[in-house]
Write a structure and sequence with these properties.
456 residues, 13-stranded mixed sheet, two-stranded parallel ribbon, globular
Length: 456
């Protein structure tokens, strides 16, 4: 019953306004169960004043559950300035982003965490997430397991931490599991820097100029299982991306291509007229079934200046990633030209399964190794729409060309997510069960994030 109350409150977005409590008066049993559900009472809204008597009642009913408070922005300044007056022995996570309604902040607002706050007052701080110009004492950070910095300055200089200061800061947090740096300061040319070991790192996300990103990768040592996201500025050709892929090549190829490694990977291409994101994913299911970044082993963003430049970037990326890439997902790559298509499918390795949307006519018909073809339709269109005809013609020509060469297509799966004009050709109960499990996992993760650990 407590689980039902929790699902109702979370999915109805009624946690902070307490409107979920309207169902607890059905009977005394429901009322008593709700009283005992301490995490549900830990969401307190003080942004509009409200009934402070009821606020203290919530504090009492929340027990030892974590508290989530909503307060007016004008009080944030008071909170920050008074933090050093207290000790926080059990505080484990601190997240501060003053970008929301920034214009309402006081004119003299100092976006800095006081140095004294890190002088033993946060002994159990493990996660620190700062953004939007918040300054912090970089030399005082120790023992963190998660660190995210976006446009932040060092409070001693009111400037972004230098490349050397970043390395020193990270060396004092050797147990980091998650790291995000945006942006990275440029290193000084011809200067030696130490290498930082991060053996527990699970996720790395770096953003900055190509030189800075490449230098940071060259001065990190992290395990092969680390999910790496690289978002460099100024990658418009194959030459630009080379310096980044050189340090990542050794890290990403050797453990996955070793004898006995039977892992398959999916290459996901997201292409728009302005940019292209190449992702190497550990899960070989189409992108519509999962969040690509949640299973992304390597993600590289670029802004190719031309179709030829895109081909160069794709070619170099393919040379850097493991040979065990067997699946290709280009459902979000509808603007790929023929030249880029040839760069993608020329290596005779991506042939197990290819996921497409509406670009079957662009697949080279001489490419012989595709055994399973998946076509997914996304747009709401009529049966007589020109796109349908194009897809049908492309499929017929491709399948015919393969048959003429004596190579038959094992599986052709056509799916319309809007149930308008294509029917699922093959029914796969295993796939449907997996998708249900993924949905349940997503809901579980959402509740855990809200502090509601409910068993599914």
């Amino acid at each position: 019953m407590t689980r039902i109350l929790t699902i109702f409150a979370v999915e109805s977005n009624l946690l902070f306004n307490l409107k979920w409590t309207k169902i607890i008066y059905v009977c005394r049993h429901w009322y008593e169960l709700a009283q005992a559900a301490h995490p549900l009472w830990g969401y307190i809204d003080l942004s509009s004043g409200g009934n402070f008597g009821w606020m203290y009642e919530q504090f009492m009913r929340s027990g030892a559950a974590p508290l989530s408070l909503r307060i007016a922005l004008k009080y944030v300044y008071d909170v920050i300035t008074k933090l050093p007056n207290h000790n926080f022995p059990i505080l484990s996570s601190l997240f501060l982003d003053p970008s929301y309604q920034r214009q309402h902040l006081p004119a003299d607002f100092i976006q800095a965490l006081p140095n004294s706050l890190f002088d033993g007052r946060l002994p159990n701080l493990r996660e620190l997430n700062l953004a939007s110009g918040v300054a912090f004492p970089s030399r005082s950070l120790t023992g963190l397991t998660a660190l995210s910095l976006s446009d932040c300055n060092d409070s001693s200089t009111n400037l972004p931490p230098s490349f050397n200061e970043l390395l020193d800061m990270l060396s004092s947090c050797p147990r980091l599991c998650s790291l995000k740096l945006d942006p990275i300061s440029l290193p000084i040319a011809h200067r030696d820097y130490p290498t930082v070991d991060l053996p527990d790192l699970n996720r790395l996300r770096i953003h900055g100029r190509v030189i800075a990103c490449a230098a940071m990768l060259n001065h990190f040592r992290f395990p092969p299982q680390t999910n790496v996201e690289i978002l460099p500025w100024g990658v418009s050709s194959g030459t630009d991306v080379r310096d980044i892929l050189v340090p990542i090549r050794k890290h990403i190829r050797s453990p996955w291509c070793s004898p006995g490694a039977h892992t398959s990977f999916l290459l996901h291409i997201f292409r728009t007229p302005g940019h292209c994101t190449l992702s190497l994913c550990r899960r070989t299911v189409p992108h519509s079934s999962f969040d690509c970044r949640s299973a992304c082993a390597l993600l590289l963003n670029s802004h190719p200046s031309s179709e030829g430049a895109l081909r160069q970037i794709i070619t170099k990326f393919l040379k850097a990633i493991p040979e065990c890439v067997t699946h290709l997902d280009v459902c979000l790559g509808s603007t790929l030209g023929e030249v880029s298509w040839k760069a993608v499918v020329s290596p005779p390795r991506i042939g197990n399964r290819i996921y497409l949307s509406d670009q079957v006519d662009r697949v080279p018909r001489t490419f012989p190794r595709i055994r399973r073809l998946y076509v997914s339709a996304f747009q709401h269109i009529d049966l007589e729409d020109e796109t349908v005809s194009m897809v049908r013609t492309g499929l017929e020509g491709y399948v015919t060309a393969r048959a003429d060469n004596g190579i038959l297509l094992e599986t052709l799966e056509i799916e319309d997510q809007h149930y308008r004009y294509f029917e699922m050709v093959s029914y796969d109960p295993v796939k449907l069960k997996k998708e249900r499990e993924e949905h349940a996992a997503l809901m579980r993760a959402r509740m855990v994030k809200l502090g509601l650990e409910i068993e599914f």
